[in-house]
Amino acid sequence: MAGTNISNKKRLTLLFYFAMFFMLVIVGKLMQLMFFDAADLSDKAESQWTRELSVAPKRGSILDRNGEVLAASATVESVLLYPKDIKDPGEVANLLAPILEMDEQKIFEIASDKSKVEAWLKRQITQEQAEQIRALDLKGIGFFADIKRFYPSGAFMSQVLGYTTMDGEGQEGLEKKYNKYLAGYAGTILAQVDAMGQTIEGSEQMYIEPQEGLSLVLTLDAYIQNFLESAAKEAMEVNQAKSVCAIVMNPKNGEILGMVNYPEADLNNLDRSDLETLASLSRNTIITDAYEPGSTFKIITTAAALDSGTINTETTFECAGAKIVDGERIKCWRSGRPHGHQTLTQAVENSCNPAFMEMALRMGTDQFYEYIYNFGFGKNTGVDFSTDGSGIIRAAKYIKNVDLARIGFGQSIACTPLQLATAACAVVNGGVLYQPRLAVGVQNSAGEMVESFDAPEGKRVISEETSATMRGVLESVVANGGGKNAQIPGYRVGGKTGTAQMYENGVIVQGKNISSFLGFAPVEDPQFLVLFIVREPGVPVTYGSVVAAPFAKDVLEKCLKYANVVPTEPIDTLVEVPDFSGMGMAEAAQKAQEYGFSSASFGSGNVAAQSPSAGTMAAKGISIDLYGNSGTAADAAAVVPDLSGKTLIEAYKAAKEHGFEIRVSGNESGVVQAQNPQANERAAAGGIIAVTCG
Predict the structure, then answer these.
(1) Catalytic residue at 295?
(2) Whose C-alpha in 142, 249, 318, 470 is 20 to 30 A from the C-alpha of 664?
């Protein structure tokens, strides 16, 4: 009996401990549910009896400096389905497909998917479509306010503005760069649903209003942009060019007033299915793409040489048609008729390559590179854009004299158009380099400036005296040199032309080049600077003075008049330049003399182009440049010799006999293993054959 009592006590004790254990487990679980998992459980519960829908905020507008709307957002309707509320998916699909221009089967699949409480059917439908759907009075169809981005002028300023995703997120350009200001904050709609996920009729809905985005105010001026885009379109058509890009800047502070890449993309009708084409059309090449600037870079070389004390305005140069550096003979663009003895101003007017080689070599690599870097080449400009190219500069330790000489006249160095324009602003504005910028700040819907974007202080790169000298020299280029086509009656204009070679796979492409003009006005107090670049012009005469300068002049003249800049030069003594096109050279020279002009001929045959252009008002006594339709930049084609197996000396002699120069890439010893252009091809006489030795 005593043993039985002890067993019972043990069983009771064990039962008690088991009970306590399970009680602790239950209490622990309750504590976890009440304190630790409460928030999650509450959210789950709420999600079961509520339906949450995000409401897109209205994206802020993008405005030009005068308040002109360049990009805006409008409220449109989007349609969605509540599958659990739809009784006949087939009927819904059949009725909606023709209205929304959608595949009926696709609508049926969305409407039949009962696993989803809601599903977007089509975003940003038209008002007419919305009215037609409402008239059907179908259950399970909802409408919600959506925001659609639109651009009032379509393709206007397209590569600068960029574009957004369907959800209104900035994807390219300024839309992407300033997305955090433009985007705003989404709102929310909460609706009550039953256990089946169906909306409870008559139930209350909670609406949290979205917060509208801020509007971005740009430095760009829509009027100046219009001048620029019209000129770019005309230049592309007239010159049968592949593309045109141009920029207008305020030299005094680095503000970008206009920027165009042509052809453009219609931002309201983007084809997002072809990503390669979309990327190409939306690419802002002015900011992103490096190119070999050619003679426009001579502005930088001259400024550096003057400021460093290497040369002065009394320095003279000799041009024998070419200069031999490190055993390589580098020609002047006018090697057939050397410029001979020249002053500094004349050398810049003539764009004489040997003179700029001499400047670069006298400065030496260290000093010249210091100026190149100070002018902002080889690094990002800091422009407020979604991308920012840095150009290409070979490290100084790898530079030989022959490379330095070529850099002096704008070869063997690559920069973006924005880098060049920014550096040129410093050359003419008194010597201060400013960071370029596209936006001045953001404002609220009331038009109040919420935040201003202050530009960094400028950095002095050359002295005021050097800058003043450069303005005078560049004015002479327009008055007497290759920039005659940029003359504007009543205004003093300075500038520099450029005709640069194009490369593919590291070698020069014969018959393709980039023609450009960089100009500013007025010389005494520069208000506007224009860089105008025409890529791959398809006309017989492709000099920058003919292909680019007239269009840059057109833009500059319109800018000056738009800004009410008062003319300072007399115009009553000017004479209209006649049209010499189609005339023989002798006949044209005689006619020029009859009108009180002198003339200089380039090439032979009949006149294909002239500078200044016909109709330009110019002072009597100036020289008219006449370009023939043969023997100009597109010289008569010659047969390329076979250089394979030859030593460099033999290759040089063979190329010379056929009217070509050679450029060596890679190893400079051994024999020629490859060449471009290939043997027996026809190429412009006087061109370069790129050879590889081994």
Answers:
(1) yes
(2) 318
